Inverse folding.
């Protein structure tokens, strides 16, 4: 008998859509809430630039390391219960990490990243299953919700810290509230959820597929740039002369503008013969924006964060869209998602870490630009393979 990937409730329409978007809203605040108050955290806990780099890297690393856990959880609990469990643990990690010292902050950030990694693997399969004819628009909406959560955390954490009397701990802990709300509103999804049989050898099959590797590399390299921006852009802009609140607002604006291309890029890409042109175009915008933030006169920073946001909104939404477009069925989409996000986010973690090490070693940001160019060109190369009109072999075969 072939394995299946299905829910006892075959299509839950609007309820599923709302629940998915609320969950997606929580997939970035744990990361983007740290960088606006990183200076305050470093001062309070006496963190060196290298340790700050580790703090921004750990959540991304555990996004990748935890991704292979998702298929195992699905086999035992089903996708809906797995998402619910991850939301609960995410809330606990966000509540605890500001109050348990340096080691606790690092471990809590890692745990939060792991929960986000599990959820991120599961949602594309749920989208492919419940909205098979609307994958592109659903991916765009999911990315919009994700970006709104990221932007809200980036733009409001520093003002919240100031409103709380310079309490960075309370400002970070605040972000457990959306996670709790999402868990409560996800509860109706648990009715009728049954454990899902997933092919045990699915991952092994995909690891022999060159297209699956190209999708994974694009996911990882574009994510490396995204998490570098999440973790370091406010610090970079502060070093270039912007006030902390303005630097956090610049990151928030950049993320918020991702909404436009998060919707437009999948819509355009799905109507083309293949997606290579769209992928290269959004990567080009991303690289242009990064170089402007690093080297252009600081007076024009708003132009560069706009370009950066437009590029990164398209790269991430297209990376998610490829998970569905390159998979022939929902089970394969879930398995490709696990591989691409597992390998991709583990690779992506190197970006913020290397940026921190280069910044620490050089005492400035000039050397960082070369690293970002190499990563962007690598992503473009992977895009030329992943963007072709092909599909990976179904893991349900045989």
């Amino acid at each position: 008998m072939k394995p299946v990937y299905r829910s006892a409730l075959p299509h839950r329409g609007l309820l599923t859509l709302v629940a998915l978007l609320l969950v997606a809203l929580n997939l970035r605040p744990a990361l983007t809430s740290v960088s606006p108050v990183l200076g305050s955290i470093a001062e309070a806990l006496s963190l060196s630039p290298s340790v700050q780099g580790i703090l921004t890297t750990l959540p991304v690393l555990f996004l990748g390391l935890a991704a292979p856990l998702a298929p195992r959880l699905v086999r035992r609990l089903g996708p809906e219960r797995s998402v619910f469990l991850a939301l609960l643990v995410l809330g606990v990690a966000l509540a605890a990490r500001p109050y348990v010292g340096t080691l606790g902050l690092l471990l809590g950030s890692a745990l939060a990243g792991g929960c986000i990694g599990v959820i991120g693997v599961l949602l594309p399969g749920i989208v492919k299953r419940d909205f098979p004819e609307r994958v592109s628009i659903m991916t765009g909406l999911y990315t919009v919700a994700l970006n709104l959560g990221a932007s809200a955390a980036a733009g409001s954490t520093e003002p919240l810290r100031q409103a709380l009397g310079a309490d960075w701990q309370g400002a970070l802990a605040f972000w457990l509230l959306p996670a709790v709300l999402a868990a409560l509103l996800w509860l109706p999804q648990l009715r009728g959820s049954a454990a899902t049989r997933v092919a045990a050898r699915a991952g092994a099959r995909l690891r022999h597929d060159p297209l699956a590797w190209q999708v994974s590399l694009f996911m990882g390299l574009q994510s490396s740039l995204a998490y570098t921006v999440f973790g370091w852009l406010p610090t970079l802009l502060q070093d270039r002369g912007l006030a902390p609140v303005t630097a956090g607002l610049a990151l928030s604006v950049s993320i918020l503008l991702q909404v436009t291309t998060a919707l437009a890029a999948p819509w355009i890409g799905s109507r083309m013969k293949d997606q290579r042109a769209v992928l290269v175009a959004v990567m080009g915008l991303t690289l242009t924006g990064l170089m402007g933030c690093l080297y252009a006169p600081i007076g024009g920073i708003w132009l560069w964060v706009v370009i950066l946001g437009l590029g990164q909104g398209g790269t991430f939404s297209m990376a998610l869209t490829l998970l569905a477009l390159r998979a022939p069925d929902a089970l394969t989409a879930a398995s490709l998602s696990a591989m691409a996000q597992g390998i991709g986010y583990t690779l992506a973690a190197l970006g913020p870490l290397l940026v921190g090490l280069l910044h620490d070693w050089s005492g400035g940001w000039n050397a960082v630009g070369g690293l970002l160019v190499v990563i962007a060109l690598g992503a473009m190369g992977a895009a030329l393979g992943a963007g072709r009109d092909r599909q990976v072999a179904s893991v349900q075969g045989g």
